[in-house]
Every structure is written in structure tokens, then in C-alpha cells.
Write a structure and sequence with these properties.
The complex is a heterodimer of chains A (433) and B (579).
Chain A: H1 5-17, H2 20-25, E1 34-43, E2 48-56, E3 59-69, H3 79-82, E4 83-89, E5 92-98, H4 103-113, E6 123-126, E7 132-137, E8 141-146, E9 148-149, H5 155-165, E10 174-180, E11 183-190, E12 196-197, H6 198-215, H7 217-225, H8 227-233, H9 239-260, E13 262-264, H10 267-273, H11 283-290, E14 298-301, E15 311-314, E16 317-320, E17 342-343, H12 345-364, H13 369-395, H14 408-432
Antiparallel strand pairs in A: 1-2, 2-3, 3-5, 3-9, 4-5, 6-7, 7-8, 8-11, 10-11, 12-15, 13-14, 14-17, 15-16
Chain B: H1 38-41, E1 44-47, H2 49-52, H3 63-68, H4 70-76, E2 80-83, H5 111-123, E3 127-133, H6 142-149, E4 161-162, E5 183-186, E6 191-194, H7 209-224, E7 229-233, H8 250-266, E8 271-274, H9 280-283, E9 295-297, H10 301-311, H11 315-322, E10 332-336, E11 343-344, H12 350-360, E12 367-368, E13 371-372, H13 376-379, H14 384-396, E14 400-404, H15 462-467, H16 472-485, H17 488-491, E15 493-496, E16 504-511, E17 518-525, E18 531-535, E19 546-547, E20 562-566, E21 571-577
Parallel strand pairs in B: 1-2, 1-14, 2-3, 3-7, 7-8, 8-9, 9-10, 10-14
Antiparallel strand pairs in B: 4-6, 5-6, 11-13, 12-13, 15-16, 16-17, 17-21, 18-20, 19-21
Helix pairs in contact in B: 10-11, 10-12, 14-16
Classes of the chains: A alpha+beta (433), B alpha/beta (579).
Amino acid sequence: MPPSSEVLARMAAGYLERQAWFRSAVASEGRAPVELVRSELLADGSPGLSRLLLRRGPRHFQLLLGWRGTDIGGVLRNEEGALLGAAANGDEEVVVYDALADDALCRVILEVATAGSETAERVRPVASLVSHASLVFDERLFMKLYRVLEAGSRPEVEVLFGLQAVGFDALLTPATRWRDGSFDLALVRRFLPSALEGRLLALTSLRDLLGHVTQSDDAGLAVASDPDAAAAAAGGDLAGEMSRLGETTARMHVALALAFGDEPLYSGELLARLAGADGSPSAAAAALVRDAPEDCGRSIRLHGDYHLRRVMRAESGWIIAGFADDPLYQASDVGASLPGRVGSPLEDLADMSFVLGRLAREALASRTAEESELGSRLALGWWRRNRQAFLRGYLANAEVRRLLPGDEAFRDAMLAAFEEVRERRYEATSAEG
Amino acid sequence: MTAEQTPPFTGSGTHGFSPTIVGETPVPGSALSADPRWYERAVFYELLPRGFFDLGADGIGDLSGITAKLDYLSWLGVDCIWLLPFYPSPLRDGGYDVADFFSVAPECGTIEDFALLVQSAHARGLRVICDLVINHTSDQHPWFLESRSSRDNPKADWFVWADDDQTLSDIRVIFVDSERSNWTYDPVRQQYYWHRFYHHQPDLNYDNPEVRDAVLEVVRFWLGLGVDGFRLDAAAYLFQSEEAGGENLPETHEFLKRLRAEMDRDYPGRVLLAEVNQWPADVAAYFGESDECHMAFHFPLMPRMFMAIRREQRFPITEILSTTPTIPEGCQWGIFLRNHDELTLEMVTDDERDYMYAEYARDPRMRKNLGIRRRLAPLIDNDRGVAELLHALLLSLPGAPVLYYGDEILMGDNVYLGDRDSVRTPMQWTPDRNGGFSRADFAQLVLPPLMDPVYGYESVNVEAQLRDPSSFLHWLQRMLAVRRQYPVFATGSLEVLPADNPSVLAYARTTSGPGRPHTVVCVANLSRFAQAAAVSLTRFEGSTPVELIGRSTFPVVSSADYPVTLGPHGFYWLEVGAG
């Protein structure tokens, strides 16, 4: 007899209270008790495994609990933090713990989640946002196991399978979606072990660029006279990669429109999208909308949180690694979109452009004041060059132009306005911080 | 090596030696391995006979001069010499405009000199391959002179003639700097003739069976002299058709298969190395099913090594490796850093070409066709660390490395010379007159040796580097010796290993012959700054890596990613045993 659901639920309640992600999720929910919605026995024996669906107030949570005999030395990762307590497994006393700390049980979870179609020998956890756990199996499968659940389709799952259905392949290909009733429990995707976050490539480029300034007086002079040209001349140029990222981004937008449809973007909607942190648009944004042509482009399903951590450079080119998908996720520090948003594709471009600029500024932080003086000019040149390359690659896609305002001058102004909004939101957030 | 141990490389040692023609039977005293797949493990050394060593003292390098330097090449540790054309030629394209396929240019020597060179090389365990220029001839070749003389002579159809220049008009021009069309009008025959390269290099008409037979006769002639194979110049263009841009046509493959079959039947153990400047997936077709070319150059890898180092990111390399198909058993890529041509940028995107020009050829004089006509050392600003890293990659990536003469001492170039002569200046042997290349008067020399303060022969020469145990020459010689001890570099499989730092390239080379698998993990820092990375080596958990050059042991591999720190442009070759 495995530990009863009630026993496990009782232990789970105490365990949840110790988890930062849980406290964050229920911060505004008062002191309601944690309730067991249902449980499922996934493995009977030692180790054993149960999946618990819990609720506190309107929030739902998933917890996978394992148990073994009391001699568990060396079995668990983060043993102390993972333990829930002791329970009876028939006549045997067992230790109950968070199953994600047990490699053997993680492999069982993979088999269950994929209905037996996938097995693995190795598992390793990877750092992730708090509302889900991320596991890599045999360096070929990537599982996102949701802790904080949402009724209905999770935006990321929906977008991934939607893009896959229309043939968009620049993705970590979704393989399996594990569901329980209306809840998405986990998403399994093909993993590309050698792919790297775009942010790392950008930082490498900036490192090379800023190193270039400090290597010779000539380089410094060149920066002072023409930072854009100096940015182009330094070796670790990212422009080629950004151009290719632009091409991939355009393909993503075309695929999003194909998968989820598109409709005209009206000026009233545009005005709302240009609102800053205070809820109102700037005077310039208001003027832009006032004088907007009839054609403001199309409104499509957006990526919604498009920045350099969301894209990865794989051997074959850029892929979109993830989509905004965290119910605990507050509008990011770039002031970007919310999950599942619709709007002008230019908003995703503005997100990326903003992040490039911010990354350039961050890279200066480790430099001396003297270096920073030249470096800040160079960073600006770097941002302009890579933004330009990104847009060039993007606009090279003839199909994506259908989604943008036909008037190029207005299109550029609209993009600039979206960028400005992100800057304002960021400044407001920083000021609050 | 100390100065006392320096081998006697400069003596001629050939006078009075009676040459014999080398046939199919093994050469008495030959030190060649009996392995018919020797080329898979070989390191090639490409040299320009006219620019290597002038034993005849007429200002032009010769075959006897190469024979005199065989001990040097043997010491260096190469396995096979690739001779650039030494045939009679008007020399309007570095000898690739052949005027007689059956003899040696008088200034380079005689057939007997050639036979002696081959025999002497074999006696030292060195093999020799020659350039086989079979796509075209010189317009001074008797075949062409006869063909152009009328429309009904016996060789009238040995070249590709047409009444106008409109057919095959979609086929690209390769030498874009100098040719506007692949057709040139001949006022004698009053027709146009076809040429994929210079207008003075008419293409042979392979649709004519007499031409195919004649070319095979050329092949048999040199194989009969003992040559170990051929580098097939311009192999992709033998036939003409509107299809597929006129390149890589089925008829071409059919002819190469016939050539291979005849070689295998009558001259086993000889090699065909294809020059096909195309994407790897297209080039792989030239291996056939192990029944076409034994080897083919991997052109797109080369510019991407330079690109990766300048961008300090591994993706240019890993991307092209990921699109490189598995090749049939018994086949091998030829990989290189530089050669006698421009650093070709045909197989890159327009953006990448712009980048390469901006980084490596800011002076327009450095550009040629779609490429950069510079030698290795000036390309990398004479940076010893970069040179070592590039060679560490060259010697450890899949393929047989092909070194270019002079790069082992980091020779420079002269971009003020025309065409690709910039990278074909005489080998710099000593700090003496003419760099030890020739005892002729300076004015007689085939090309002026370098005399600038950085790369001139007084600074950069073999003799000086032999005396300096820390020289690049000695470093390379040691690396070649290490590589030879580990066949895994030659024939092992390749797996790019995940590393969390884009500036770090890591890959495993593994052989799975008898016994346990053997793996060498190569880790390279493409950045000029020190880097740390975590490399995924978990499948080697429990193994103790041993660095191959110093034989020092590294920390045991655990279940976590393996932390590695590397100095600027540093690299490791780590033996990790069973995987």
C-alpha cells in the first residue's frame, strides 16, 4: 500500500509553503488552505511515485512526490531541500520527497508523460523560471514540467504546436504534451545540446568590440571619429548573425499569422499599445497615431517576449527557444509583451532592438571610466549596426511585409515609437527599483 | 632539437645518380607503407616546383631541387608531396595552362628527374602526387592548335566549338575579374570555343571518346612513372550542359568512375584527390560509392576557420560541419588553411564575403576573383598564437591536412605581384642571397623572394627556425609527430560537444576499431581573451583526460559538465579513453 493521497497532500501542503515559487503564486490569495484536487499513482513500489493536483484559492499546482525506504543516502539531489517527511508504505516506513530530486523517478515521469514513447538513461535539471522545472534527458529531450498550472492551453504550448503545424521549423521541436483534463502538465521538446542563447553571442561580440578599443590608441581614435564604422571594423561582428536572426524572426511572424490568423490593426488599438507604464502614450506617440495612415499593418499573434534569451544559435542557424509562458511572470524588465498577446509584429522587433541596446550598456559596466567614455560611443554604434542588420534580414522576407504598414516612413516611425515605449517603461521600472 | 642535431637538408646528393623509371613493381628500398588507404592518414605538403628550390641555379625551381630537399620534408613529418604543375606551359596561369601532358618543362627538369624524385621520395617513405589538369589545355597545346586550324581536322572536335556565344549562357563565369564570358571567338577557325577559366585555356570536349581515351593515356603515363596519384584540377567542369549550372554533371561522375576503375585495376594504392569548390553535400558525390575519387577538398571549411577566429565564435565552423555528410568508407576529405590560389570565398554568403574582405583584405590589392590572395601569416597579422590554433584545428578536424609550402615557417606574401603570384614567392631556406632558393642572379629569379623587414628571408627562413627550438617550424614538426601517433585524428568520427561559451569549440574524435573505443577531445578557444567553459563530457564520466602534447593529466570527468579554462587562442587535445 503506497502512502495515501491524504497523507501525501498533507505533507505537500507544508512543503509548498516552504517554496518561493508557491509563496509568489499565492501572495495575493489570502490564507486559504491547500486542497487536494486529485492524485494519480504513477509508480507503485520502491521508489514509488504519485502526481498530486492541488489547489489554493483559484491557483492550481502540480507536485510529483516520490518515496523510498529510509536509506536514501546519495540518491537525491538537494536532499535536504527535497525531503517532505516520513510515511508508511504498507508495513514499510518510507521517506517522501520531491520526485524531481530523484533521477530514477524523473525517468519514470518522462515515460509517463510521453505515454511510453520515450525513455532515457540520463537526466539533468537545468535552471529555469520558478513556475516550472526543466529537465534534460540524454541531452536530446527537454521537459518543462509545470508547477503552477493554468486551465486551458498554455500559450507556449499552443504557439509551439501551432507553428509546427504550419511547418515552421526554427524551434526546439515539440514532441509531447502531457495533459490532465484542462491542464497542461508538461511539454517535451527535442533538445539541441550545442545551441546557445543569443545573449551569449551578443556578449561575445561586445567583449571583442570593447576589447578592441582598449588595445590601441588608433582603435580609440577610430571610435571617437566614427563609432559606427569602428563597430563594423572590430572582429567580433554580430551583424551577420543578427541579419540571420532577422530572417528567422520574419519567418516566425509569417508562420504565426498563418497559424493563428491576422486582422487589421486599427489606430485606436495602436494607441493603446503605445501606452507607457503610466497607461498613457507619449505626446509623440499620440501624434503618430493621430496622423496614422489607414494602413497600420496587421495584428497577429506575437511572440510577446522577444529577446536574446528566447532565441538560440544552433548549428544550423537560429531557433526560437521559448515563448513567454509563466503565470508568475510580470512584464519583464524590458517592459515587453504579455503571453499570448496580439499586436503589430513591430512590437517583437522593438523588444529585440531594446534588448540589444540594453545589453550594450550593460557590457560597459565592467569597464573603467576611461574605457567607458569611448566604449559608450562604441556601444551605441554596435547597437545601431546590429539593429540595422536585424531589420535588414527581417525585411528581406517579402511575405512579412504584408503584415507591416505599407508606408515605410510610418512603419519606421511606428517601430521607433514602440522602442521608445520600452525605454520609458524600463526607466519607470528602474526608478521604482 | 639542437643545432648539432639539425639534419643536413641543404646538400643536393643527387649528382651522378642513375635514375630508373619506376613501374608497378615496388621500388627496391622503398619505405612506403603497404596500406592502400594511406591517404586517409597522410599529411600532404603542397609545393610549387618552380618556387621551391633551384638546384640548377637558373633562377627557377626544379624537380632536382625538390629531391634535394626531401630530407627536410621527411624530418618535418609530412607523408605526401603534392606537386603543382611542372609541365611545359606558356605560364599564363601558373602552369595550369598545360602545353604538353607528357613531359616536364625544361626549366623544371626532365622525365628522368621526375622519376628520380619519385624514387627518392619513396625511399624516405614519402609519396608524391601531381596536379592533373584535365579540364582544359593551354591554347598553345598542339591538340588545340590542330583543333582550331580547321573545322574538319582529326582533332576538330577535341574542344568545344560553337558558331555563336549564346548557348550555355546561364553558366557562371568563374574568373570574374578577367573574363566576361565562357566563350571566346577564334579568328582562325571563325568559331567560338568554350573555356570555364581563362580564355587561353580552352576546355577539352569530353563528349568525344577520343578525348577521354587521350586523357586516360596521360594518366597511365604518369602512373607508370610511379606517381602516387593526382589532384584533379577543376574536376567539376569536364562536361558542358545547361543543367545544374553546367557543374557536377552525371557524365563527369561517369568519367571519373572509369578513371578510378582503371587506376584500381592497374595501379592499386594510388589516389585521386578532387578539386571541387562546392558545398560538401555536392562534393560528396565525387566519392561515389567508394568508386570515384578517394579524396576531395573541403573548401567551405577553410574560410569559416578564419571567420570563427575573427568573430571569436564557433558557429561558422560547427555550422559547416553539421552540413557535411558522412562519406563512404575509404574516402577522405582534404582540408587546408591556405593554398596556391586565393583564399576562396565562393562558398560563403554575400554578407560573409563582405565580412571576410573587411577583416582580411582591406587593401583591394589583396582581393582576387571571389577571394583573398594572401598567405597565412599576413592574414592573421603574424600572430603566432592564432597560427598555432589554426594548425591545431587543421590537424584535428576530420580530413587529411594539406600544408602549403612556406606556411611551416610563417612566410609572408607580396600583394604587389600580379594574379596569385602574391602567394607563390620562392621558399625561404636561409638568410643568404635569394633566401637560399637559388644561386642565380636576382634578376633571373622566377619571382622575387620577400625582402621586407617582417617577412623577408633574412628574418623568416628554414635555417633560422631549425636553429631555434621554439620556432613555429619546430612546433609544427612536434604537432605532426603527435598527430601521427593518434590515428583517431585521421579516421575517427566527429562529434561536436556542447560548450556553454560560444568562443569555445569542443569536439570529440573517436575510433571504434578492435578493443575499446578511443577518443580524443579537442577544445579550442577562438578568442584572443582567456575563456572558461563547461564542456559536456558526461559520457566519459570517470575518465582521466590526458593532454597529448605534454602528457599531463587533467581532473577526472564527473557527471557534471567539465570545466575548462583556456588562455587566449589556447587549445587542448585530451585523450579520454573509453566513452
